[in-house]
Amino acid sequence: xxxxxxxxxxxxxxxxxxxxxxxxxxxxxxxxxxxxxxxxxxxxxxxxxxxxxxxxxxxxxxxxxxxxxxxxxxxxxxxxxxxxxxxxxxxxxxxxxxxxxxxxxxxxxxxxxxxxxxxxxxxxxxxxxxxxxxxxxxxxxxxxxxxxxxxxxxxxxxxxxxxxxxxxxxxxxxxxxxxxxxxxxxxxxxxxxxxxxxxxxxxxxxxxxxxxxxxxxxxxxxxxxxxxxxxxxxxxxxxxxxxxxxxxxxxxxxxxxxxxxxxxxxxxxxxxxxxxxxxxxxxxxxxxxxxxxxxxxxxxxxxxxxxxxxxxxxxxxxxxxxxxxxxxxxxxxxxxxx
Length: 338
Prior knowledge:
Structural class: alpha+beta
Strand content: 5-15%
Number of strands: 7
Number of helices: 12
């Protein structure tokens, strides 16, 4: 069982939170402003409406403070965006669809595509467009003097263009984000994940339900390979070993964290860690690796450390490194377990 795929934030998550915070504050201010207006009314029903608006304002005060402190919740996306759309619809119904307040509907595709998935954003945008048409349509489509005022001409094309642009932008943004993320997290030589990727998934190792250990691996006499056969041979050694590790454990459990150092994530029952690690060591020792016509004998030394919820990454690496050093001092081609 391999670990989850590493992820890093390239700034998009923070930008989403800022957009949500802005929308939350707008809704908050609108709720309190209309609430104050209604509470001054002499009508009893208006006071009940004001009470509900203050209650809703309190909720969005909570979401605003939480977002400001970086303590967002998964359901903030839904509650804030849908409330924002509801606020626009309420304003349009209150002031009239013929007023300029209805132009706020055009912001919905941009917001929904950015906050939600492309499919979710498309569905929301389409539903809002249908509502916009329903409120705005004047049924004078066959009157030449009124046709320019019709919904189909003044609303659907520009709204559709905004939807198309929002969809295209989101498609390009997601593609660029994926490529940049892969570039930042992947070692260019071996295509294994790197130290940054290890940092990004380490919290999942700490909270994993299945027992987990890290095996820090260092290729024995790697400098000798570079000196005798050249750095190109050393690169081929690294590629060959990374392929073997990936075949045994899966690509999401193999990390190149140094020149000739790899970190392997082992997920199994504790009593099986040793047999799993020794099996990998044995396969490396017995692999037939040729560079040109020269056969190169490969072995590695390793240090294995179990991971718990209280084990910090720096501490785990330090202990695994100490075990690795002990394995080298004992003659190499050996794994020391902590």
